[in-house]
Amino acid sequence: MTTGGPLTGHRLVVTRAVDQAPPLAEALIDQGAEVVLLPMVAIVDPTDGGAALAAAAARLGDYDRIVVTSPNGARRLLDVAGNLPVADWPPVAAIGPATAGPLQAAGAPVDLVPGEAVAESLLNALPDPPDDGGRLLLVRAESAREILPAGLVAAGWDLEVVAAYRNVEPAVEGPVLAEARTAEAVTFTAASAVRRYHDLAGGPRPVDALCIGPVSGGLAHNLGFRVAEANPHSVSGLVEAACRWAGSRGGFRRLS
User: Fold this and answer.
1) Predicted TM-score (pTM) of this structure
2) Which residues contact 165 (CB under 8 A, 6 or more apart)?
């Protein structure tokens, strides 16, 4: 643990799923923070047990492009896609560097990572489908915003959407929630975590929210949090935002 870092003396809440919290929590601790682990998200199989994802993964060569919207989707696609060598996959678009990371590490042909890790940026950056039509596989959470599939269909893609996982609410221990309420800031990497935390905590307590991107940040702002947004929209960007927040004690606002 690093002592004397910019977060020394500050208590922050980490709301990521248990298996995904360590990189963020450890990076915050390295900067001197006291971290309260309060998972607001648990990642489980989709309702169909992953059957649709497995079926699509068995015929990846049939698609002209793949779009993956989260690191969870990326890892689950890699887990089941054994029939076609990763290097022979069609071009892959990933929403954000965190999603692109495991795909690139495995050798997948990631050719598009939009500047902002949101659906709107991907739609603006995605090439048009081939003139004779194009099949696109969208790998995402079971429940997600509809702006991306609607935009892909409007752009002319022959779209297949498969659910790679579900985002569900884990059990919360009362003493940990009470400790979180007394922290100075809470970190969010998903909009669902913002909503769940707000409802459980009885409002924006603490009031300062450090959010990984505009979707979680926008919801937090609407629910009454004072929002500092990561840039870039990644774990490292979130840690940088936390350090800036500590230096200004919330004096900067990307959202107002």
Assistant:
1) 0.79
2) 43, 44, 45, 46, 72, 73, 76, 141, 142
